[in-house]
Amino acid sequence: MTRARTFGLAVWDFIVGDDWRTAIGVALALALTALIAAAGVSAWWVMPLAVLGLLALSIRRAARSASR
Amino acid sequence: MSGADIGLALAVFLACTVEAVEALTIVLAVGTTRSWSSALSGVGAATLALAVIVAALGPAIASLPIDLLRVLIGGLLLIFGLQWLRKAILRAAGLKAKHDEAQIYEDETEAARAAGQRQGGFDGYSFAISFKGVLLEGLEVAFIVLTFGANQHRVGLASAAAGLAILLVVLGGVAARAPLARVPENTMKFAVGVMLSSFGMFWGAEGAGANWPGGDAALLAIIPGVLIVAVAMARTLSRAGHPVSPEQLQTTPTEPTDQATVSA
Known about the structure:
Chain A is mostly helical. Helix content of chain A is 79%, strand content 0%.
């Protein structure tokens, strides 16, 4: 494994951790916020809804794997 | 000092206290068991490495345009915060082992004894374990200080809050000469998860072009809102009574030194 790859994996692990789906979800929610705001429509509500959904899904996945 | 500044200082202080307590446990374990001079050399080297990282990244982060900075840092902070919050909720619901400094100290001490006799004056094991522990826990502190400080243009305030937390933990450790097991780490981790997620959501949305109703005052609704949701999730999970084996709830002995994200 090259040093660059090792470094990249360490950074990924540090920031994203073991739930990449939540990271993708946050990126998509921010992109949606930007799109709606750019269209001149109020967009502040996107992130709270996204966080609620992402947290619930992440907890559900973790709870299922913990009880297995 | 504004409400956002107080929130920033509180979040950084709590996060840094938790990380400092974890690093202290590791250093105490190898220092008392093997070699104080080598363990403290590891602490010094890790502090130097952290200073270089902060010195290199700080100006680069601060030079980014404010909207890009907020969306980038807000997003990262939210991803980071949701990890802390998820683990805190699972701990509160009894689905994940609670962090137990006394147990971790015992396990680290046992591992240090089992690592064999040291050769000569310098103990490589003590140095490496201290270095790794302080660097990994310190990286989280540096990340939080840089992101919070740069976004609010209050790096000084964030650094002061972090410094105060580290100083208090070190003084507590010197006074107790034992791991600070009575610090309510699990509750603090829950609070940090709430704060990181709230600030991440707030800054991320602002950076993406959204305007929060009430501006900065929106944080006064966001933080309690996230807290209420997180507590409700923990209670719901707890009531659902997911069956977990006792083995799964045992404290993982190498948790602090395994990887940075595990400690959240």
